[in-house]
Amino acid sequence: MPSYASSCGVRRNSLPYRLETRLAEDSSDESPASPTSSDSSDDEEDLNRRIQPYWPKYQHAFRSRGFRLETVRDVKNYYRQKGASSLDMLGSQQQLSSRVDFRDDDALCPDAGFPDNLFRGIRLCDSRRVVVKAVHRRSHEMMIIRALSQPPLRDEPTNHTIPVLDLFEVVDDDIAFIVMEEWSSQLISSTGPCCLNRFLAALRQCIEHAAFLHKHGIAHLDISLSNLLTDYEGHYAYIDYELSRCFNSPGTAVRNYRGTEVPPECEKEGEANPFKIDVWALAVLMLRACKLTGYWVPELMQVIEPMLDQDPCRRPSSKEVLISFDRVISSLGYHIGPVCTKLQS
Description:
It holds the Pfam family Pkinase. Keywords: ATP-binding, Kinase, Nucleotide-binding, Transferase. By secondary structure, the chain is α+β, with helices and mostly antiparallel strands. The chain has two domains: 2-30 and 185-344, Transferase(Phosphotransferase) domain 1 (Transferase(Phosphotransferase), domain 1); 50-181, no CATH class. The protein has helices at residues 2-5, 17-25, 42-48, 59-64, 72-81, 86-95, 140-148, 196-215, 274-293, 301-307, 318-331, 341-344, and strands spanning 11-12, 67-69, 118-123, 129-136, 164-170, 175-181, 218-219, 228-230, 236-238, 245-246, 254-255, 271-272, 295-296. The chain has a five-stranded antiparallel sheet with strand order 2-3-4-6-5. The longest helix is centred in the middle third of the chain and has 20 residues, at 196-215.
């Protein structure tokens, strides 16, 4: 991006040494897996644990609602469309051979990279690819996703939850299914890094969604790059509300927190402010995103540093973070938006 390399202090691959060291110490090449929930009561833990449904049992239910769970035939067609060689297809088949009979084109074909509570599927009316998540029907995640994906919260422009196409319950099994659009976890496309315009827009969407959640008393409690998806059209969305909670009062605290990004106050036993946990995690997400894309705007540290304060009481609210971000970006003369500047030239 030559047009940005020398403007307003933008640097590529130039994080401050102290922050670079911090990220290197607690990260690997792969994003850490999302943690499991840790709740104070056995009943609470049982409701919010990851479940392992027997997916074939629910095929008819999905078809009756206009969806199809992915089959061996779908996977074979996918590889053919991608131009994969027979050797590539054979390797993929061998990877799943213990779980799938590839001689039966109609057999369900779970994705080897997914946990047991996720399954790929297809919407019948337009062949749109979807991802289905199975949860306990009385779980926190189901309650929160239901609220976020229905009016009035669904219609708020600051809500950047992954689009949910359907929600339904199987009462007899105490199970519920969340049918989502399939977006990509690969935040940078294979064609190369996004432009700075879109990168800054992505950061703003991340901050804006945290502020939206907090305004409605919801703490995500697992903000991380691994829980951020994109549609490659300038839109970014949060997923994975397994640890998320609703709080009726701002003074509510959480105990024994063990999310992906753990702030210092949670490294020892005791209570912590869930919203300040999110602010810390959001700062780490921003730093990791800068490192991943190679974009670094030094002035962003005016926003990020206060978010990483060792004392959570001194950290800004997510709303204050959004105001600070907008002020810094405006002072640098950027006009950010979802349209890639590569496409405008």
